[in-house]
Specification:
Layout lengths: L1 H37 L16 H7 L2 H34 L6 H13 L2 H15 L6 H25 L3 H9 L4 H30 L2 H6 L7 H11 L3 H36 L1
Helix pairs in contact: 2-11, 3-6, 3-8, 3-10, 4-6, 6-8, 7-8, 8-11
């Protein structure tokens, strides 16, 4: 009787779940869609449609301060992602493959600190480190070092999760065929964990492009990044030009997501071909 009642009420449950799912999607993405739509509005007042125009994108392109901040963001994100990916991959392999070495537990705890501590605390720590301990002048390179400091942990966590699902017998088989550790890593381990490495790299790139708080602490004169620049403009007035640059950043983020999905699809197809 209870089974029949559950079956009878099943369509209502499905509809309720469907409606709640669409409400969640609307809550998350409807504001983003509105921002994109009004970035093409010909009215200077945000929220009032004034006809379709590319004017704000043209003004964005011809704004030297905004383009300079965009170039700084791209440069910092690219450099910090490269170093964070290399260091994070090395840290993830060390934590997963080498379980008995002096200081491993302390290193494991320290690796998770940038993920769990507030960004304000992280930014203040980096500011004190750069200005009082080293000391060095704040510049675009201190921003790069700061982004490497918090991005490396995210890469290490993702790579470590990928290694946890890796079959150790594949590496052992390579060594049985007289491959040394470097050859085994380059020909076996690295291709297998490459989706995790690329996923960590894309996450580090996205975090660098979006970061405001830590960048605000460690930036120097003339080294403003795009998120900080936009945040400063919002304090004065929200204009369609801000909507345009935000739409551009959204498009870049979507491209990165599609690239990540492409790497995952290639990984799955490659695995299925090997099994076949």
């Amino acid at each position: 009787m209870s089974v029949q009642q559950g079956t009878a009420h099943r369509p209502w449950v499905d509809r309720l779940l469907s409606v709640s799912g669409w409400l969640v999607f609307a809550f998350l993405y409807l504001p983003i869609a509105i921002l994109v739509i009004y970035s093409f509005s010909n009215n200077r007042i945000v929220g009032i449609w004034g006809g379709f125009t590319w004017r704000w994108y043209d003004r964005m392109i011809h704004n030297p301060e905004m383009m300079g901040a965009l170039w700084n963001s791209a440069k910092v994100a690219l450099i910090s992602t490269i170093f964070a990916t290399v260091l994070g991959t090395m840290a993830g392999i060390a934590l997963d493959r080498y379980r008995k070495w002096l200081g491993k537990q302390a290193f494991d705890v320290i690796m998770y600190l940038p993920v769990i501590i507030p960004e304000v605390t992280m930014g203040a720590m980096l500011l004190i480190w750069f200005t009082q301990v080293l000391p060095i002048s704040l510049s675009i390179w201190t921003i790069v070092l700061g982004h490497i400091a918090f991005s490396t942990s995210f890469v290490a966590i993702i790579v470590r999760a990928r290694l946890a699902n890796l079959d150790d017998s594949l590496e052992e088989a390579a060594m049985d065929l007289y491959a040394n550790r470097w050859t085994t890593f380059r020909r076996v381990t690295l291709p297998l964990i490459m989706p995790g490495v690329m996923g960590g790299a894309l996450l580090a790139l996205t975090l660098s492009l979006d970061d405001v708080i830590i960048t605000e602490f460690v930036q120097g004169p003339g080294a403003s990044l795009l998120p900080v620049y936009v945040f400063g403009l919002i304090k004065k007035q929200v204009t369609p030009e801000i909507n345009a640059v935000s739409t551009l950043m959204l498009a870049v983020s979507m491209v990165l997501v599609f690239i990540s999905l492409g790497f995952q699809a290639r990984s799955k197809s490659g695995g299925s071909n090997k099994e076949a």
